[in-house]
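During the second half of the funding period, the structural biology subgroup turned its attention to how the target accommodates small molecules. The most pressing case was magnesium ion, which had performed well in the primary screen but for which no bound structure existed. We therefore specified the complex as follows and requested a full 3D prediction, including the ligand pose.
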Amino acid sequence: MQKGGVGKTTTTVNLAAALAEMGRRVLAVDLDPQGNLTQHAGLDPDTITPTLYDALKAEVDGGTGDVRAAIVATREGFDLLPSQPELSLVEVALINTLSRERILAGLLDSVAANYDFILIDCNPSLGLLVINALTAADSVLIPIQTEYLAARGALMILSTIETIRRKRLNPRLTIEGILLTMADTRASLTRDIQQAVEQQYGGGIRIFSTVIRRSVRFAESAAAGRSLIAYDPRSAGANAYRAVAKEFLIPNS
Ligand SMILES: Nc1ncnc2c1ncn2[C@@H]1O[C@H](COP(=O)(O)OP(=O)(O)OP(=O)(O)O)[C@@H](O)[C@H]1O
Ligand SMILES: [Mg+2]
């Protein structure tokens, strides 16, 4: 949750593609009205229909939403639950909805058995959509732009997670780990930062040992509507996300 993007969408699409490549059944959920994940997976959020919006809108209107009609298979090997810009209207309407924090959890329940992993890409502001994601999730993966790590509030999400647990919205929510993204190539800097996180936030939080370095290939692949895994399978960035997927599957690997 920092201005300018920390790599949430890039991480969602490439982790989803890497896990799919490893034979896992993955659903990627675009919970951001900007629709960047939808675009990154090769679809147009301005024209695609139905989307997650339709299912949430049905719930907000007092009916029963169903995400199954909106899920599409992408050429990336994972399924996508796309977004559209009107999702921002739903976020406002959710305020007056019964069990407003649990709507997404309820919608995803009906498809959860079809997947090994469901990855939810969040928008950068802490509103009811993000609260819904945190209520639906088993764990949170936190990408951090490496050079901003020292900034105050860079990890404000940690206190939000604590609140979600305390208010019993999702007492079992865990922190998957912190992923350092957009890093400088100097390895020593990265090590310093890893130490700083451990000092500031304690040893209880995993920091992925794979660090995602800065590369223009990421923006190129996004513009092409592909994951970097598909766009340039042998690139350093693609291999880095494959390594993240391995760490994700087998902690301490
Ligand atoms: N490792 C990287 N190196 C260079 N550029 C990157 C890297 N990762 C992502 N980018 C680029 O940085 C921009 C922001 O990344 P991304 O969209 O993944 O961030 P985000 O956290 O989802 O942003 P938002 O908060 O707006 O949703 C994009 O143009 C993306 O292509
Ligand atoms: Mg994004």
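Two results from this model are relevant to the next phase. The two ends are 28 Å apart (CA to CA). The first helix runs from residue 8 to 21.
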